[in-house]
Each structure stands twice: as C-alpha cells, then as structure tokens.
Amino acid sequence: MYLDLQLKKKQMKEITKAKGVLYGLAIGDALGWPTEFLKLDQIKSRYGPQGITELPDPALFTDDTQMSIAVARALLLSGEKDIDDIMAALREEFIQWLHAPDNNRAPGNACLQGVANLERGIHWSRSGVPRSKGCGSAMRAAPIGYLYQHDPQKLKSTASASGICTHGHPTADAACIGAAYLVKLALDGTDPQQVVPELLAFTAGISAEFDRAILKINRCLAWEDSHKALSHLGEGWVGEEAVALALYCFLRHPEDYRAVVTLGANTNGDSDSIACIAGAISGAYLGVSAIPPDWIRKIEKSDYLGNLADGLARKKGFFL
Fold this sequence. Notes:
Keywords: Hydrolase, Magnesium, Metal-binding
Pfam family, one: ADP_ribosyl_GH
CATH topology: ADP-ribosylglycohydrolase fold
Low-confidence stretches: none
Number of domains: 1
Largest sheet: none
Protein name: ADP-ribosylglycohydrolase family protein
Organism: Desulfatitalea alkaliphila
GO molecular function: hydrolase activity; metal ion binding
Oligomer: single chain
Mean pLDDT: 96
Helix content: 55-70%
Number of strands: 0
Structural class: mainly alpha
C-alpha cells in the first residue's frame, strides 16, 4: 500500500512537470509571437508601458511549439531506442510538419531547408544547413531534456542529432544541447546560482561562441534595468543568444513563471523563441501549478498538449 502510494505520487509529480514543460513553452511562444520582429519601443507603443502582459485571443503558437510537439511525438514512438530509430521517427514527424496546412507561422528557413533535405533522402547527419546557427534547433529541444532527465549522455546525443538535422553550425549544436540540458537542470531543482557553471561544464568543447554568450549573463544579471541587460545579450535570432536570453529571463525571476515569459516576450528580437525556451525552463522548475490556469485554458490545442504531456510522463516511467 505504501509503495503504491509512493509510486502514485511520483507519477503525479512527473505529469505535473511534463505539463509544466509543454504548457510552459507553448504559452511563452504564443505570448511572444505578436511581438516578434518588433523593437521594445514599438511593443510599448502598441501594448502600453508594460508591454505585452496577457495572451492574445486567440492564443496561437508558432513553429516553435509545432516542432516541439513533433519532437515529443517522435520520442513517444521511439524514445527508448537508439539514435537512428529516434531520428527515423523524428524525420517522419518533421516531414508531416513541413506539409501541414498550419505551417504558416513564420517558420525558419534552416528548419524548412533541413527538413526538405530529410524528405529528399539525405541522412540526418548531413541534412542540416552547414552554416546555420539560428535558434530553430534550440527552440524545440525541451521534450528531450524532459524525457532524458536522468540520462545526460542520451540527452546530449539525442539533442545533438535532433539539432544538426536542420542546423549544421557547431554553435547551434551547443545551443540545442544547452536548451535541453537547462530543462534537465530545472527538473532537478538545481540552485539557480549553479545553473550557468553546470550548463557550461556540460557543453564544454562544443562552441566557444556559445560559452561566451552564456558567460555574458553573469555580467548583467545584477543590473537593475532588465531591458538593458537583454539588449546586452542580443536579440535571439541565433541559437547562442536565444538560449542566453531565455536563461537570463529565468534567472531573473526563478520563482515566477508569468514574469519569466512576460520578460522574454518583451524583447527587441526573436521574442517568441526566447519566451518559448524560457517558458520551458520555468515550467520544468516550478511545475504546471505555477502557470496561470486561464492561460492554460486559452492556449491553442490545450487538451492535446495536456494529453501529450501525460504520454511523455508515462514514457519517462519506462526509464525509471
């Protein structure tokens, strides 16, 4: 009886965290989509001095969440198998996304080209755009961090493979691995003060450019003006900046999901990707109970996201 109760508690905790990750990223994505391509002064002019603070109606997400869903679905089909099997499932999911009628939400060129290469039969290890270091691989990595929380090497190899199939630059590789690992650290309940050194230890040797972007967080985290700090870190169009900006948003407000994604959405650059990555980290750290319930109700495909999270939690039980 006691063991059954403990198992049930563990399962409920996993579901809470899985929903925190998926709802967290999708809501951040939807909150940041209307402000993507806008400068902060334009955002404030349109939404008021606090910028955007509430989900739009309808609360639609972008290719960031669509591709994250594709990753999650592929992991449900093949997550316990080897990399080639995982990538075979991911190839099929990405091709479905490529041709989906709702793939009309400003998808990135590298994602489109990389998946087109996969469809043409090019192996996933060679299909990525060689010089692309956009954030399109990092934005979709959260489900990998969730499923392989307790297997860091499987996390690293799967994140790397899932990223290089569209983005071939080493800095994008580091960003994708880093984004997945940040979800793992958040699920572990890592002290926020230890996140930067643990992240850099895990991604060591992949990209000095990524390392430099993350280290900039230490220089500006204590600045009073958060928007000055965000400008210092970049605009997020490239992977290293998107991960650095998202991590900054989380570290600035580790106990407040709403503040994390709102800060990410009110940025000068790729606001939806920044808030998406940040939302996944915060959702992993705090769980679904920290996300406003009305936002969960409003987000596009809310029930589907919840069911997908349940599936991921059950799949993760296979490894525990």
